[in-house]
Amino acid sequence: RSSWLLLAPLLTPPVPVITASPCSLCPEGAHRFQWIRNLVPEFGISSSHVKVLSSPAEFYELLKVQIKTAKQRVVMASLYLGTGLLEQELVDCLEEALEKSLQAKGSSNLRVSILLDYTRGSRGRKNSRTMLIPLLQRFPEQVRVSLFHTPNLRGLLRLLIPERFNETIGLQHIKVYLFDDNVILSGANLSDLYFTNRQDRYVLLQDSPEIADFFTELVDAIGDVSLQLQRDDTVQMMEGMVHPYQGDKMAYCEIANRRVMEVINSARTRQELLHAKTFHSSQQGSSLLSQQGSQASGGLKPEPDTWIYPLIQMKPFGIQIDEMVTETLLTEAERDARIYLTTGYFNLTQAYMDLILGTRAEYRILLASPEVNGFFGAKGVAGAIPAAYVYIEHQFYSEVCYLHQQERVQLQEYSRAGWTFHAKGLWLYLAGSDLPCLTLIGSPNFGYRSVHRDLEAQVAIVTENKALQQQLHQEQEQLYLCSGVVSSSTFEQPNRYVKLWVKLVTPLIKNFF
């Protein structure tokens, strides 16, 4: 009854796009990706500070431990916070940490900032807002809850489009969980499924103050252009800020662009200065060490062997850095390089599909079988979404076969009884290498929504360290072990039957899920 409403945003004029041209890839060495620092800050760290997690339970336990031990800051960005017992336990951990901080000093040093999506976080009578209001009421000076509302959901469309369907227009989709100087990057939301049997990816960056500062500032910037949750469950904008759906859309998007780009550019400048200072110090290092003896060497940081690049995508604000970097990685991947790409929702943009089909690297694409799709068994129209993904997958597979690319581009379906699949990202193996030197991990799904509608963030992790490369390789292998290779016979199975109406409707609405 409301499918036609989903087409309305296509009729509205888009915000002007701001782009920049990336440099060509450096031809030599494992770290041939330094061109990315022309677009975003580069954070050099030791690989010993990076830990790859593998299970939802491990992720959940780590969240609780990190909250309980945080002294200065807890910053959490997610699509939503669930309303079950496991989520309540997280809120209780936050309350306990705030109380402990308050008792220790008399005035708390701990600050908690939570960024969620407005539409998803407001769904139903019991929702993310009602879960967090007790914290706001008890610790008004220490807790901030920001609810991002897309500027594209406004006017008549906002009045007419029903709950749940309004989430198709645009969301806050970033998932970053930060505790003092420790940062968890993931695609997982703060909901019980993601703590139990919904497979995702998770990486912990320990003792990384510069990276933690960057993501704190990024969440603050988005928070500043978001609605602020009040103690009485109302929301209001910060004083002087343009309203996302009542104010002028162009003015709002320009302000949001400026705030986010200030964070990216100031961090980039800081890191460049730090890099120049470190390089200058290392030039004099040998003579200083010979004068000061072995004590000086004990105080020096180890040379970084791993580099972190935050990739931001916010097309509503004209920011498309992640898209630019991803397209360049796919374009420049050499013959005999291997790219393992995974997404819980296989609905690639046309640009990504064209690059995969038209470039030289080998691709192993992992996607959800219908039974592990998050919408499997859903009520109403949403229940047909897995069939729509089957249809999109079949179309892509047919194109692969038509171009005789089955050997180079292989689809694999994740299947695991009692589980759903939500992992996303890629691993890049250079030609002749058995281990990946680069991974992308974060919130984007490589689909139209990720590129055009939602707020997204992931990181590129580049490493020369064999032990970390082995961790990333094992993560990839563990996910792909639960998969089967897609062939023509896959689509002949009874559970792959797609009704005619789904085939007709999918091209019209595929940009909304």
Automatic annotation (TrEMBL):
Q: Name one GO cellular component term.
A: mitochondrion
- The positions making up the signal sequence are 1-20
Annotated ranges, domain PLD phosphodiesterase? 168-194
Q: Which CDD domains does its entry note?
A: PLDc_PGS1_euk_1, PLDc_PGS1_euk_2
Q: List UniProt keywords, sorted A-Z.
A: ATP-binding, Lipid biosynthesis, Lipid metabolism, Mitochondrion, Nucleotide-binding, Phospholipid biosynthesis, Phospholipid metabolism, Repeat, Signal, Transferase
Query: What does the record give as EC number?
Result: 2.7.8.5
Q: Per its UniProt entry, which superkingdom is the organism in?
A: Eukaryota
User: What does it catalyze?
Assistant: a CDP-1,2-diacyl-sn-glycerol + sn-glycerol 3-phosphate = a 1,2-diacyl-sn-glycero-3-phospho-(1'-sn-glycero-3'-phosphate) + CMP + H(+)
Pathway per its UniProt entry is: Phospholipid metabolism; phosphatidylglycerol biosynthesis; phosphatidylglycerol from CDP-diacylglycerol: step 1/2
Subcellular location(s) of the protein: Mitochondrion
Q: Which GO terms describe its biological process?
A: cardiolipin biosynthetic process
Q: Could you cite one Gene Ontology molecular function of this protein?
A: CDP-diacylglycerol-glycerol-3-phosphate 3-phosphatidyltransferase activity
Give yes or no: UniProt keyword Repeat: yes
The question of whether Lipid biosynthesis is a record keyword is answered with yes
Primary location recorded for the protein, binned into one broad class: mitochondrion
Enzyme superclass (EC): transferase
Against InterPro entries, the record matches this protein to: PGS1, PLipase_D/transphosphatidylase
Write down the PANTHER family for this protein, in alphabetical order: CDP-DIACYLGLYCEROL--GLYCEROL-3-PHOSPHATE 3-PHOSPHATIDYLTRANSFERASE, MITOCHONDRIAL, CDP-DIACYLGLYCEROL--SERINE O-PHOSPHATIDYLTRANSFERASE
- Report the function annotation for this chain: Functions in the biosynthesis of the anionic phospholipids phosphatidylglycerol and cardiolipin.
Q: According to its UniProt record, which protein family does this protein belong to?
A: Belongs to the CDP-alcohol phosphatidyltransferase class-II family.
Task: Report what the protein is called.
Answer: CDP-diacylglycerol--glycerol-3-phosphate 3-phosphatidyltransferase
**Source gene?**
Pgs1
